[in-house]
Request: fold
Amino acid sequence: MMRPEQLNISVLVSVGSHPKTGRSRRADQDARAVEMALQLEQSQLQVLHAGQADEPALRQYLGMGLACLDVLALPEGADVVPALVRELKQSGADLVLTGVQAESGESSGLTPYLLAEQLGWAFVPRVAAIESCSSGKLKVLQALPRGQRRAVQVTLPCVLSIDSAAPTPRQSAFGPAQRGQIQVLVPDSATPVAQQDWQVQPARKRPKRLKMVKAKTAAERFKAATAKAASEGGQVLVPKTAEEGAAAILKLLREEGVLR
Reply:
């Protein structure tokens, strides 16, 4: 385990959703953030959730060995960012860890960005590991595409979003999950979000994309460019007037789903 200087760490957790069954669970990236915080010795840890305190999935975080979990009791539809900002300022946090994005709800992934902006702190997205901490500087490894890593040094206080490439979180044990305490914190006020004025409707099916030919050699590219398309029950149309031709084209576009 890494032995950093004394840090006041706040980990923000949310209620996740199982990708297959849709059941509530601890969010995977948030659990990795808790695991990363537990690996930092000699640090004061606060695990914080903004929302409803009666969610059973929150006890899965307690099952990782936490003695207490704080819940900012907010009504449904309230903006969590102002309440989190006030709580983080009052707790004197030096380091805030979050997941990249939630597994349920809006799941926009903007929360850590908004927190860093309103707190005036530095922000590093998609962190895979924390290497060291000394003299108010934090050295982290940032996850890049195709398994690559980039070393980043950031000045405390800061906000980090933890990527799925971070170490796997420990299993949640039933006994500690039941013995752990959930402390409910009542914020001064709840700010409604613009979501109340949104109009939600089912997404429309997108038009079909044209098939792209993937050719590696010049011969394959030449063959693909000169090959005749296979006929599948089409018809040759020789319109007598421009109106007949336009009507045939419009009918084809509607059948292919390009126009509705």
Notes: The mean pLDDT is 87.
